[in-house]
């Protein structure tokens, strides 16, 4: 690994640590209120009957998108959650409220291997930190970057929406060629379009 790559990795690690510390310091009751309020943004996310939306089961102090997913499901969306297959790969399995969830590690849960694997058309992307250009810092494993790249390699273009609290924004993320930029960010302040991307249909 080059000195530049080492430096970028070190910067990302520091930014991740600082952003997560800010997120962890948020009042849990306030986070719960924000999660409920976030569901009101569903009107800005166009779904039809059968539209596949991938969310995630929140781990630790992550933004809870379950209320938002419930509203979208009520409007006809099919909800999927990430399932970790190995150290490099996640797939998106259909979530049904009456089906069991299994421990995926890292404090998150997902459908078991009996659930259908779906290709997300809209993807809520968790993250540790982000900047105004739409670059994100994940948790270091690269699962989402690889999953998005695989979908694009098959000719698919899911609508990518980063999910975070405002306090997770940083001045600049050291970006690398393989990093996937996010055209939109959803925080407690609302849905933000990132400049430099074509407008998404609402």
UniProtKB/TrEMBL annotation:
Q: What class of enzyme is it?
A: ligase
Q: Does the keyword section mention Repressor?
A: no
Q: Which GO terms describe its molecular function?
A: 5-formyltetrahydrofolate cyclo-ligase activity
Which keywords fit this entry according to its UniProt record? Answer: ATP-binding, Ligase, Magnesium, Metal-binding, Nucleotide-binding
Q: Where is the signal peptide?
A: none
**Superkingdom to which the source organism belongs:** Bacteria
Stored InterPro entries: FTHF_cligase (IPR002698), FTHF_cligase-like_sf (IPR024185), NagB/RpiA_transferase-like (IPR037171)
Q: Which SUPFAM superfamilies match?
A: NagB/RpiA/CoA transferase-like
| Enzyme Commission code(s) on record | 6.3.3.2
Q: Which cofactor names does the annotation list?
A: Mg(2+)
The keyword Transport appears for this protein: no
Catalyzed reactions per annotation: (6S)-5-formyl-5,6,7,8-tetrahydrofolate + ATP = (6R)-5,10-methenyltetrahydrofolate + ADP + phosphate
Q: Which PANTHER family match?
A: 5-FORMYLTETRAHYDROFOLATE CYCLO-LIGASE, ATPASE INHIBITOR/5-FORMYLTETRAHYDROFOLATE CYCLO-LIGASE
Family membership: Belongs to the 5-formyltetrahydrofolate cyclo-ligase family.
Please state what the protein is called. 5-formyltetrahydrofolate cyclo-ligase
């Amino acid at each position: 690994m080059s000195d530049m790559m080492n430096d970028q990795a070190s910067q990302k690690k520091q930014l991740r640590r600082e952003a997560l510390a800010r997120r962890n310091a948020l009042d849990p009751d306030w986070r719960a209120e924000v999660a409920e309020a976030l569901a009101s943004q569903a009107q800005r996310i166009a779904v039809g009957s059968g539209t596949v939306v991938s969310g995630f089961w929140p781990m630790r102090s992550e933004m809870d998108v379950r209320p938002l997913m419930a509203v979208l499901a009520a409007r006809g969306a099919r909800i999927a959650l990430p399932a970790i297959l190995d150290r490099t790969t996640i797939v998106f399995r259909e979530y049904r409220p009456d089906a069991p969830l299994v421990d995926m590690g890292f404090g998150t849960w997902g459908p078991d291997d009996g659930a259908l694997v779906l290709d997300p058309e809209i993807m809520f992307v968790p993250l540790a930190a982000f900047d105004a250009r739409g670059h994100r810092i994940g948790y270091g494993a690269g699962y989402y970057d690889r999953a998005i790249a695989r979908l694009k390699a098959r000719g698919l273009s899911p609508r990518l929406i980063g999910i975070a609290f405002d306090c997770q924004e940083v001045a600049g993320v050291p970006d690398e060629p393989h990093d996937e930029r996010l055209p939109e960010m959803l925080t407690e302040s609302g849905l933000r379009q990132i400049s430099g991307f074509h407008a998404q249909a609402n």
